[in-house]
Task: structure prediction
Amino acid sequence: MELLEYQAKELFRQMDIPVLPSQRIDQPRDLKNLSIPYPIVLKSQVYTGRRGKAGGIKFVNNTIDAMAAAQAIFHLPIMGNYPSVLLAEAKYEANREFYLAVVLDTSTRRPMLLGSQFGGEEVETKLSEVKQVIVEQEFSPFYARRLALKMGLQGDLIQSVSRIVEKMYHLFAEKDLDLVEINPLAVSSSGKLMALDGKVVVNDAALRRHPDLVELFPRSSQGSASPDRLNGARSIDPSATNLKLVKLDGNIGVLCNGAGLAMTILDLIGAAKGKPMGFVDLGGEHHYGGSLESLHDRLGQGLRLISQHEGLKVILINILSGVVPCVAIAKSITEHLQQQFKTTPPPALVVRLVGEEFAEAQTLLAEMNILAVEPLDEAITQAIALAKPTKTAKR
Result:
């Protein structure tokens, strides 16, 4: 379950991760009582990146312009969602931008630190520059410093960025999270660090262990916090959503439900000497509401996008599902393959599914000579083997 930016930044504040003064905006007239000085930036609160390119981020210098901009953003769908909450934030002049994340490495079941000197939207075109450090034993500042050094940081930045990574890790561990991401971590001309955007993915089971996380969610009509309403974003028909392919120069395409996980997989493919072609992010279950029909539409669109790439040899599909059974996802995959490749052979596929009814899904996909596995490392190994023309890999 993913938090919105303003909710993620509330957790950052609790951990003393530097964030800008900000205010939640529920309607344009809230800007008449703004508590932060102009100029400010207004940011649409929806589950997607590239909000700036879509028109969901606007800089304004006064109340009149701010109210007009807020009205426009509230009525702007981004990746299928209208925001019902905006974030008003102080403007910040960044000299450099970094990418930082803490995720769970599903192959080793250990936390992984990720970092790059290329932050913001640039990270998607520089995935090979994302460095990783697996936390193999009890966490210590050594791991954070090791990441900073692998990123190529120098001088005071080594220590200052290491401290941010330490705080991110403690947030990740203390709250039982699946992902903590800062993108970008901005560096001012004076060397001051600031988390300009953030993402936090909460493990659903963690909500029961951490009541304070539930308090981040909007209140229901009965006055209790409701996780089902945490995003405040109003969905429109997901079948009308335009997914995007983030391209690289390799031959293994990744279709995944979660951009953070997709980037981790691409990094692992590269570390194993494979050549990632790019990825399509289907979005987490909050994007399609746990609906098989909506996920089916996204799978079809994602397969079409990836299959159009000239250098493609293998598609690695990675879907973690807590609602839709694996066998239903497998049926959707086979249906799309039969529809999209009536006259031409489909590319090689490796499918990694995590959820209920995996064994049935594995059997169904095997009937079409498609390998389905649960361990991520096995999925990556098989995809790399299939991408090598000189070797015969199990399918």
Notes: The domain at 238-387 is CATH 3.40.50.261 (Rossmann fold).
